[in-house]
């Protein structure tokens, strides 16, 4: 059967639906399903929060008997394997659906093509690849983790009219207005984890949470590249680490194991294996200890110890720039940070090609880099960005400005300009890498 404009219209509705739970179904993708009988929508659903139930059985339940002879529009190939839920392809067959229209084929080796075969073998007409580009965008985090073994990485920067992202030594400088900032909150809520460099963590003292009313529980896991455990204990990140997870990526050189054994451990033993769940805490009032990503013993035995001053507050030591490491000092900071609920993993923070797969192994499918300049440059140079969101504001920073590592005029090759949106007086340009 050939694909009609109506098919595209219903698939567009399914894709819109799927976006509702972006970042809230890990480690499953957020899939949309619309069931149509005689041109009328009789059932529709998105993957439930937490990833189960899948979209198809919910939409079929809503359609009831009307599913018989209907067409199901699904953004991702229906699953064919018995996981924690029965196969969705079986449910579609059992309900007597006559036709299934799919946007994207599932790269998961347990499914890939098998869902479609099961449906066809049961006599159901299947059309795949409908609005595939749009479908792939809505599933980008899931597809990237499946096919590249790393999260989908977005760099977001706010750039002034004179090409700056901040001012040296001044902490947070307001560049964009409230409309743009509200939009960034939405982006955070759709993302599994957010990452900044220690320079930004110290100078800006950011919270990096979602404060949009109703979405507070959707704050991403907060990750700081912090080679020497310089994050001040008085920082907002540490103060809120028991409410929203904070992970510090520290250098192997200061790992307790590395210093004892003479050879630094790799990151992977320091990171717990995937648990099938990522660490967004659904309950904003959550007061438990330790991160859901923690290895079994992280935080345990972390008692109150005398706290040494954070590096950023120590005399004679540049923020994030110390060249030698005092093992005792690092150990005291480690103990104090862990006692505050911060998780520490040991891995060269400046090797994203090692860090990203480790994050993917832990169920993180989407990562938002929010600066600063050096951290953005690190990911740009490593070629590990999938999307760049550049907010350009009319504000002028002038003297003492920190230059943006990327401008609209020097977007790296391989990126396509996807569009421009206006938020108040600010302009957002979005670029995506061609896969
Ligand atoms: N407008 C925006 O969108 C935005 C967003 C976030 C932050 N900011 C601004 O950015 C500024 C901070 O930027 P930043 O570049 O100083 O800090 P950063 O990227 O947040 O942190 C980088 C820190 O890591 C260290 N580092 C060492 N080797 C590195 C490597 N290979 N790659 C990356 N980092 C490495 C740096 O130490 P060394 O200094 O010793 O090299 C530096 O202290 C702040 O003023 C903040 O307000 C702006």
UniProtKB/TrEMBL annotation:
<comment type="function">
    <text>Converts 2,5-diamino-6-(ribosylamino)-4(3h)-pyrimidinone 5'-phosphate into 5-amino-6-(ribosylamino)-2,4(1h,3h)-pyrimidinedione 5'-phosphate.</text>
</comment>
<dbReference type="Pfam" id="PF00383">
    <property type="entry name" value="dCMP_cyt_deam_1"/>
</dbReference>
<feature type="domain" description="CMP/dCMP-type deaminase">
    <location>
        <begin position="5"/>
        <end position="127"/>
    </location>
</feature>
<keyword id="KW-0686">Riboflavin biosynthesis</keyword>
<feature type="region of interest" description="Disordered">
    <location>
        <begin position="276"/>
        <end position="327"/>
    </location>
</feature>
<dbReference type="InterPro" id="IPR024072">
    <property type="entry name" value="DHFR-like_dom_sf"/>
</dbReference>
<keyword id="KW-0511">Multifunctional enzyme</keyword>
<keyword id="KW-0479">Metal-binding</keyword>
<dbReference type="InterPro" id="IPR002734">
    <property type="entry name" value="RibDG_C"/>
</dbReference>
<dbReference type="InterPro" id="IPR016193">
    <property type="entry name" value="Cytidine_deaminase-like"/>
</dbReference>
<dbReference type="GO" id="GO:0008270">
    <property type="term" value="F:zinc ion binding"/>
</dbReference>
<dbReference type="InterPro" id="IPR016192">
    <property type="entry name" value="APOBEC/CMP_deaminase_Zn-bd"/>
</dbReference>
<keyword id="KW-0560">Oxidoreductase</keyword>
<keyword id="KW-0521">NADP</keyword>
<dbReference type="GO" id="GO:0008835">
    <property type="term" value="F:diaminohydroxyphosphoribosylaminopyrimidine deaminase activity"/>
</dbReference>
<comment type="similarity">
    <text>In the N-terminal section; belongs to the cytidine and deoxycytidylate deaminase family.</text>
</comment>
<comment type="pathway">
    <text>Cofactor biosynthesis; riboflavin biosynthesis; 5-amino-6-(D-ribitylamino)uracil from GTP: step 2/4.</text>
</comment>
<protein>
    <recommendedName>
        <fullName>Riboflavin biosynthesis protein RibD</fullName>
        <ecNumber>1.1.1.193</ecNumber>
        <ecNumber>3.5.4.26</ecNumber>
    </recommendedName>
</protein>
<dbReference type="InterPro" id="IPR004794">
    <property type="entry name" value="Eubact_RibD"/>
</dbReference>
<keyword id="KW-0862">Zinc</keyword>
<keyword id="KW-0378">Hydrolase</keyword>
<comment type="pathway">
    <text>Cofactor biosynthesis; riboflavin biosynthesis; 5-amino-6-(D-ribitylamino)uracil from GTP: step 3/4.</text>
</comment>
<comment type="similarity">
    <text>In the C-terminal section; belongs to the HTP reductase family.</text>
</comment>
<dbReference type="GO" id="GO:0009231">
    <property type="term" value="P:riboflavin biosynthetic process"/>
</dbReference>
<dbReference type="GO" id="GO:0008703">
    <property type="term" value="F:5-amino-6-(5-phosphoribosylamino)uracil reductase activity"/>
</dbReference>
<dbReference type="InterPro" id="IPR050765">
    <property type="entry name" value="Riboflavin_Biosynth_HTPR"/>
</dbReference>
<dbReference type="InterPro" id="IPR002125">
    <property type="entry name" value="CMP_dCMP_dom"/>
</dbReference>
<dbReference type="Pfam" id="PF01872">
    <property type="entry name" value="RibD_C"/>
</dbReference>
